[in-house]
Amino acid sequence: xxxxxxxxxxxxxxxxxxxxxxxxxxxxxxxxxxxxxxxxxxxxxxxxxxxxxxxxxxxxxxxxxxxxxxxxxxxxxxxxxxxxxxxxxxxxxxxxxxxxxxxxxxxxxxxxxxxxxxxxxxxxxxxxxxxxxxxxxxxxxxxxxxxxxxxxxxxxxxxxxxxxxxxxxxxxxxxxxxxxxxxxxxxxxxxxxxxxxxxxxxxxxxxxxxxxxxxxxxxxxxxxxxxxxxxxxxxxxxxxxxxxxxxxxxxxxxxxxxxxxxxxxxxxxxxxxxxxxxxxxxxxxxxxxxxxxxxxxxxxxxxxxxxxxxxxxxxxxxxxxxx
Length: 323
Description:
Structural class: alpha+beta
Oligomer: single chain
Strand order of the largest sheet: 5-4-3-6
Shape: elongated
Number of helices: 12
């Protein structure tokens, strides 16, 4: 690196420190420094404020009174303790947050659903059976499926494991499904660490997700929205070479979720047919955003990918038929 670039980098770093200071740490340091200075008044403040002027005619002496001296000392003590308190709150307590323990499955469902939703989204967008037509952000960010599993799914699974292992109250039905989910998490992580480990007998238990999602109901307003979008999609794709289509994913049960997931199986057998359908579906994505204000994500399989389509559909928890 050239000397000019090094100097420029140093100057930019200094400028960034001035324009974007760490206000919390600087405020704590300011309080601690000021408090320490006030406590050491005899050495610092009295030297600064004591003044003695002696002439032949008179003597002038200025100094702090005992009351003022005590006030300054105790103010300094308060500032020091206040800075210690702020340091504890911002650096120690923040890093030692106790994980939340839930009373039952219903109270934990909201937290579990967020984790399950993210795992489902990762599987759909960069899993082995995700759409060949779509190259979305996650597929670009994770060059291989293995990275997605290690960086997102496994940490989410560990949090799910922690939550369901510490529930205070569980029913017999919940206990059975919790054991299945814990077994899946354990075997899945073992498989990621060692691909030779077969976890076929411990696939993700859809019954567990059905149980968790069952604690959250969809409002009538959202159901009307689902039906409206379902009818709109049916009208748009009815003229295409599509064998069947299904809505799935978080949009079906989450009112705050604006990404619509659509599973499509086409009747295409030739490359030219597949390319033509792909172009039509790309236009459909743009039209959905313009007409409905929603983001449409499609997982599309042709006739020559029938086995992949069946495997993908088996892993989807809830679907709604469009066509």
